[in-house]
Amino acid sequence: MKRLLQNIVNLFLPPRCLLCGKILSEHNGLCSQCFQKIQFVSEPHCVRCGHPFLNESEVFEAEHQLCGNCLREKRPLFKLRRFAFVYDDFSKNLILGFKFMDKTLFAETLANMLRRAGADILAQKPDLLIPVPIHRRRLLERRYNQSALLVKYLSAQTGVKTEYSALMRVRHTIPQVQLSGSARRHNLQHAFAVTNVNAIKNRKIILVDDVETTGSTLKECAKVLKKAGAKEIYALTLARTVK
Hints:
It is built from 12 helices and 7 strands. Helices cover 40% and strands 15% of the residues. The chain is an alpha/beta fold. β6, α12 and β7 (232-240) form a beta-alpha-beta unit. α6 crosses α9. The longest helix has 13 residues, at 146-158. It has a single domain, classed as Rossmann fold. It has a 5-stranded parallel sheet, sandwiched between helices. A two-stranded antiparallel ribbon has the order 4-5.
């Protein structure tokens, strides 16, 4: 019966590519042409942060297959970080449509991409999925938190519990995209707070966001969660800038 109803829906509202709008035969998100243009992350990559190695020489030079940034980290905030695809001029359209243009129907397909990208994180048996929060003022403007939507569907696909209110954004800040790297870090100081320590303490937590550029937002969230007693913190994002 469910299959019949889906076929009827598809007849009048056929599935379309999230990027170009081309009609698809199945609900798989992207047409073959757009799929090939997305730079999905695959091995070899840094075993800690997931940053792809751009050439073979980097793999052999990297100690224990760690990238240069991870080698320099003395006390990493995250046990593992992963992302689904590279944030570039093409994939940006997918992110911006989901984030700012009310294309919330993208959420389930994008969460599926997250699930695949974070397979080794999910294998660690995390306790909670937590979306990077947005300030209530921005929530009123946008009407939804795109990271919370990703968490909703990722939880349904994996069975990992969600926690939406234990980590809050308590200070309204200038959008990060408008600032440089050092200004971004200063901009986010004291912007986040844990409102329910009992929900965080001794938990293995996956922080979920849409895009990571400098990583400042994720790091500030992680610092607050660590201070509240989180056992382990992982980060899972749809896209990340790669240099």
